[in-house]
Amino acid sequence: MKRRSLLTLLCTTTLAVSALASCEPPQPGQNTTSSSGKKVLTMVTSPDYPPYEFYDTAGGERKIVGFDVDIATKIAADLGYELKINESDFNGLVPALQAKRADFVMAGMTPTPERQKNVDFSSIYYEAKNTIIAPKASNLKTTKDLSGKTVGVQLGSIQEGDAKKIAAKVPGMKVKQLNRVPDIIQEIKSNRIDAAIVEDTVAKGFTDSSPDLVFNVIPPEGPSGSAIAFPKGSPLVAEFNQALEKMKASGEIKTLAAKWFATSVPPSPTASPSGSPSPSGAMSPSPSKTP
């Protein structure tokens, strides 16, 4: 009788443990499958960083779009995965990987030595450079040349944060924020500002169409370039690196960069449902986003 009771207890305990185990959510990208039968990869991003990732509300639909999203969508499709995108504050991205709540992170993230202690990174997929756009005759080529000058930047852009850091070091430099890059260029042509700080892919488009303007690259301080972050030891790193190399070789990365960074200016980021704070947007290393 006791033996039967013990067996009953053991069976009941086993069933209970099995039931609990079945209630545990599968690890991202491992056991999760979609209705199509494809494995699902979970990407986490901080959608407050146009044009890399931001909320687009055009047409009444609220969705995360951007340069990083297009790259992630392409890679997932090429590797046979279905992509799911979740959002987080930028400071929560690395912890999400460490807690295995995501398969990878794309958020214009630079693989700094500190981050490399906690997560693995892909190869660099994009490296933007800041430039100074100015009239050819102005001879404004370096940040030191901006002393006493008024410099235009796009409001809310990564260049706005950079310009403020430069202005803190360069005597007399003033920063003027405008909503659109074309407006900034017009301000230069109208002699209402002296120069602008703009990303290189954007600068090339405007200087190609305006022979009276020229741009010079500002040397980056510290680590630069964007990479994809993964949990330590993730087998996806090798798969993604192969896919990235194919996209680079085929020119797809350049095509997407032209789409998102050229003359079209993305809308300002819409506040995310979680109320994620906007990052500082500096191109040099910072506690928040570091392209």
Mean pLDDT: 81
Number of strands: 13
The CATH architecture of the largest domain would be 3-Layer(aba) Sandwich
Runs with pLDDT <50, length 5+? Answer: 1-26, 263-288
Total count of helical runs of at least 4 residues: 9
Tell me, briefly, the overall form: elongated
Number of domains: 2
Which class of the largest domain in CATH terms? Answer: Alpha Beta
Radius of gyration: 24 Å
The end-to-end span amounts to 69 Å
Largest sheet: 5 strands, mixed
Strand content: 15-25%
Strand order of the largest sheet: 10-9-11-8-12
Structural class comes to alpha/beta
Helical amount: 25-40%
CATH topology grouping of the largest domain: D-Maltodextrin-Binding Protein, domain 2
Helices and strands, in N-to-C order? HEEEEHEHEHEEEHEHEHEEHH
